[in-house]
């Protein structure tokens, strides 16, 4: 998009040229022109309000859909270094001692070698009980560890490990973690504002936090954004989100893409790309140890039942 007659080396309002005495600043809305003062900035935006607003929306979409196509570091097992299958909590364990999430394949493999302590840092199993959990989390949270803040918030959110459920406290901790770059904290905040649990429902905050998480590679946040756009009738935007998350291994997104293809909204090429990407993502998380873990866990569930 180009504004006719405007040069980037002169003020978009008064026309003064850039030089030693005049330092022009970029218009933060459209990023297409420059201005020399606050008054000229206001005048420019007033005349070109629609264009600036449209360009700002385009720039936001470029960031939103152009980032977060790769899963974040925390989605990878620190031992086998493979991405953990989705949903992550069903295929891994989180260890407070080292703040690491280890896939079940590596946990079971360690157990078969007689290792009952933390499979990553070898902290003794006795130090991993609920009694030690909260003090360890609090100590790390006090040191501004975003993973610890996020995890401690989760304990308060659900009232785990002897803590009373305190959603406002969880929101406070997650907000701090989000400010330190935690995509999971952004995701949890979006969930709370969506459900209205402990805080008033706020659609704008839901979208804000899920967008922040999605741009950092959070798969479920990306899927949820697609669902949000679909509910609002923005089907093409929904397809763009689901195409990304399906390629990252989200089965629900692939199912949604199939529905959009059958409904004539997504193209055959888009659905084919989603299916191929999903299959590649599945291959990337496979390992022999994980196959064994699935069998072991299924056997334990069968025995318990």
TrEMBL record:
<dbReference type="InterPro" id="IPR001841">
    <property type="entry name" value="Znf_RING"/>
</dbReference>
<dbReference type="InterPro" id="IPR002893">
    <property type="entry name" value="Znf_MYND"/>
</dbReference>
<feature type="domain" description="MYND-type">
    <location>
        <begin position="11"/>
        <end position="52"/>
    </location>
</feature>
<feature type="domain" description="RING-type">
    <location>
        <begin position="77"/>
        <end position="122"/>
    </location>
</feature>
<keyword id="KW-0863">Zinc-finger</keyword>
<keyword id="KW-0479">Metal-binding</keyword>
<dbReference type="Pfam" id="PF01753">
    <property type="entry name" value="zf-MYND"/>
</dbReference>
<dbReference type="InterPro" id="IPR006597">
    <property type="entry name" value="Sel1-like"/>
</dbReference>
<keyword id="KW-0862">Zinc</keyword>
<dbReference type="InterPro" id="IPR050767">
    <property type="entry name" value="Sel1_AlgK"/>
</dbReference>
<comment type="similarity">
    <text>Belongs to the sel-1 family.</text>
</comment>
<protein>
    <recommendedName>
        <fullName>MYND-type domain-containing protein</fullName>
    </recommendedName>
</protein>
<dbReference type="GO" id="GO:0008270">
    <property type="term" value="F:zinc ion binding"/>
</dbReference>
<dbReference type="InterPro" id="IPR011990">
    <property type="entry name" value="TPR-like_helical_dom_sf"/>
</dbReference>
<dbReference type="Pfam" id="PF08238">
    <property type="entry name" value="Sel1"/>
</dbReference>
